Structure prediction request, 136 residues.
Amino acid sequence: MNTYSISEVAKKLNLTVYALRYYDKEGLMPFVERTSNGTRLFKDSDIESLKVIQCLKSTGMPIKEIKGFITWCSEGDSTLQQRYAMFLERKAAVEAQLEELKKTMDVINHKCNYYMTAIEAGTEDIHKRNKIGSFN
Prediction:
């Protein structure tokens, strides 16, 4: 079984040691073992759990709610339904974010076309004639 130091895990997950210590302080890593002198020893399974924590965090889920998820995991099969419902909720939130990003990308693509056309014509006046864009 492989074990890793906090700095090795930070590097693997592209996090800071400070972030991992914060996660620990907030109760997000009760699964991580410690040596007799208190040094954290991470296993491969701990790294996988941290990837899930990072995923949830990237969806905008508050630390408090992530901690609730970690608690459910430690409670075992009796919380499978809650965990499933939570991931369905996260999925819906991410789908909404993707839709917003798509709308943002549509505007950005439009403005790229607007400016490329203006650059090729040497002036924005071309858009006044063609009515491609209303604001710069």
